[in-house]
Amino acid sequence: MFASNQIESNNVLYQKGMKNIIPEQKEGKKLDCFESIDFESTAMADLAFDSACSSLSDVNHWYELATIPATTFQLTNGAGLPIDRPLALHDYIRLNIPGPGLPSSAGYDWVNVVNIIQDSTAEYKLYALTLKPCPDPQHPENKDTAHFFEGVSSSTFLVEQRRNSILIQYAGRNEIINVENHSLGDNIRNLIIGMAAKIGASYPQWKLLVKGLANHIRGEQK
Questions:
Q1: Which of 173, 197, 127 is nearest to 29 (CA)?
Q2: Are 186 and 103 in contact (CB under 8 A)?
Q3: Pick from 29, 34, 48, 22: nearest CA to 162
Q4: At what angle do helices 42-56 and 203-220 cross, to 10 degrees?
Q5: H/E stretch holding 111
Q6: How far apart are CA 195 and CA 91, in angstroms?
Q7: Domains of the chain: total
């Protein structure tokens, strides 16, 4: 009912009108993961696109999409309190990643939803969201970034449909290890986790999530 292939070019989504979706790479490391699926009809791709967008907005169940779950994700409100609904702009996500936790934020890393884009034309449909490291919303008095990457780093997820094809992409940009916190314990921990991420330890996590999302919509169309 469909064919699948992996895309290697990191320019696939840089079509006219899309250049500002993924933050510009200026410094540090970048990471890209792709999956694409071709369906038998545009109608089937329409259903798959809607399903992929729904799954991507369901943050609390991202870990279920990965074949081997590692990091777990919890959507929270502006005060850092857990919530269970589709993701919205300015929500926070609490990450529980493998390895030593961040001492100043009870062992968790935090990101903020800084951008959500939904677009539809006669040629394509698009859903994209961008996350950035941020301070722990449960401790507003502490302005340090509660993440192993600096606040300039970003993670962007995109789902694009063109006729009967669906493309899913993860784009990490400007990944710089955060060793600027006031806590020495934070900086040592971030150096350990950040170095592991920079040499490729984070790639399997995002690859599994992207592939899991693709497999999910494939399974629904069988």
A1: 173
A2: yes
A3: 48
A4: 130
A5: strand 109-120
A6: 28
A7: 1
Residue 78, domain CATH: 3.30.530
Query: Residues, the chain, total?
Result: 222
Q: Say what the pTM is.
A: 0.89
User: Which residues span the domain enclosing 107?
Assistant: 2-220
CB 163 within 8 A of CB 37: no
- Give exposure, 193-203, as e/b (b: 16+ Cβ within 10 Å): bbeebbeebbe
Among residues 1, 7, 21, 44, the alpha carbon closest in space to that of 210 is found at 7
Judge whether 166 and 140 are in contact, CB under 8 Å. Answer: no
Residues 6+ apart with CB under 8 A from 125: 49, 119, 160, 161
- pLDDT, one tens digit per residue, over 82-140 is 999 999 999 999 999 988 999 999 999 999 999 999 999 988 999 999 999 999 999 99
